[in-house]
Amino acid sequence: MSIIRSERYAAFFLLAAAALGLILANTAVGPAIMGLQDAHLAIPGTPLDLSVGHWISDGLLAIFFFVAAIELKHELVAGELNTVAKAIRPAIAALGGVIVPSVIYLIVTAGSGYEGGWPIPTATDIAFALGVLAVFGRSLPGRLRIFLLALAILDDIIAIVIIAVFFTESPNLILLAAAVVGVVLFGALSRQLHTRARPFVMAAMLVIGVLTWSVVLLSGVHATIAGVALGLAMALKPAMRTRHALEPVTNGFVLPIFAFSAALVAIPQVGVSELAAPFWAILIALPVGKMIGIGLGGWIASFFGPKGQRPHLTPLSLLAAGSLGGIGFTVSLLMNELAFARQPEIADEGTLAVLLGSTISILLSAIFVSLLARQHRRQKAASAVIHAT
Description:
Na+/H+ antiporter like fold; transmembrane helix; two-stranded antiparallel ribbon; sodium:proton antiporter activity; sodium transport; Na/H_antiporter_dom_sf; mainly alpha; antiport
């Protein structure tokens, strides 16, 4: 169980699942697997009728967003983002990491008709970014690790807002009102988990959570937003216990299944020159745009706040932060699916671009984080020698 909780192993499972999906999609069994993904599964007596792929992206992934929302709440209430002073620096860096990739995407796709995919390179996969940090940055100073963690978390918040605002068409307001009621009840019940009625409360919360997810799905809003709302509404202490219990499920099952499903893409049999503009836009914007945007934002942010509380952001640390931000992976794949839902050929090219761009960012971040960690070890050793003499 501890292996599945490990950030480094979670990143490995995610990458292995995506690689397996891409490989199988381009073998003889590929059409059969992709056909299974398109098969519909309906729940009798309800209006819920989704393909296997959508049960994964709308259903299973909501669990991941529920867990992520709990972590967001912890950081906002009792963690490293609980004051404006703490949040302002990573917030500026995260904002730069959204604006620059978006601009690059829009420049590359200008006049192509595919400008609507601009959110795809704005996302950071927090699970993968933390996995790279866990593997290559174990000796980094605490303040810098906190900055990188806060940056990834704020990037997740921006991604959630983008999904809610830009990928929702004509929502059913009555159903959304019902979902709000469900979220309020869920939050109120979570504050009764310390009582003797805990088993009944847990059962009621499970039923209300599922109903709320269903109502959000039917309202026209992407169903993962239900996971976010429920996670934020839950009382913090029981929420953290729930997060701990669900962490192996999200790391070992939910995220790998989604990565496998999203990567089931047949590589287009076209020449490089025939690839559509979104492919190149995403491929450039993820590793390059994120590095420039986060690096520039981080440099600007380094001038904010009391000097004693500022993270020491050297050019190398900014490169490390920017390359970590370029690992779009899970959330970028979801945005690609939403942006090009009616253009499957472009969506397939977008998936390949996300995988390639994220891989480039993984390699770059592994190099920069390793160099940064080595630099810190040398400084620490030199300081120890000085103190010893």
